[in-house]
Design goal:
Blueprint (H helix, E strand, L loop, with lengths): L2 E5 L4 H11 L5 E3 L4 H9 L4 E5 H9 L9 E8 L9 H9 L1 E8 L7 H9 L3 H4 L7 H8 L29 H21 L5 H16 L8 H15 L1
Parallel strand pairs: 1-3, 1-4, 2-3, 4-5
Helix pairs in contact: 3-4, 5-7, 8-9
Amino acid sequence: RRAMIVCPEGARRQWVGNLTHWAPSLLLTVVCGDNMQRQLDWDTQAHIYLTDFLTLAKDIENGFLTKDKLAFDILVLSNLLTVRFQTREIESALRMLSAERRWALTGSLPGEPEGWLYLFGLLTPDRVRSATGLTLPDLQKRFSPYVLRRTKVELADKLPRQMRHEIWLDLDDHQAQAYQDVLKEERDRLAKLGGSVARTHLAAAVDRLKQVCNFTPELLDSVKVRALVDLVEEVSAS
């Protein structure tokens, strides 16, 4: 049996933690890293393959997944609506995957017909072909048998208490290089100061490294920014 879980980049580590807790006996392969590492990940035998939407689209485009590797017993698309307005390559990649069962996880149901057609176009494409042009109530009625919805009110006695949740992210290649450049600059600067190094000098060095971890100055973009955007979109959608 083979399962594929595709999620936003910022949710990848959370999925790893959940799967380790829920199904420790299953072999999990997290597809990430450079091109060579990802090719090795796809070639590794596993029960569950976990990757993010952008990586999947890139690897299918690069031919890392042969036709037989595009078939799974179950496909789980986590936070699917957060990538609705991203690149067309993501949607094309998801349509190339075949699976006996397809599940989508989302914080809320779409509020317009186009959202329903997008969502179920990736889950039950055969039923969507005849649904174009239907009103929102008609779409909700047609696809209601495929929806399992749970609200906070329904699950109030089963939900854990609210707690602070940390999300660990890997720097992308550009950000990692910028971090190494700043680290070298600060090491050289502190070395030149010699015995006159003070706590303020160390604090300034750490602050510069923290800034690079937040985003690269020339781009104002980073894995943290993209993860934050995903979270905001999920909250606003609900």
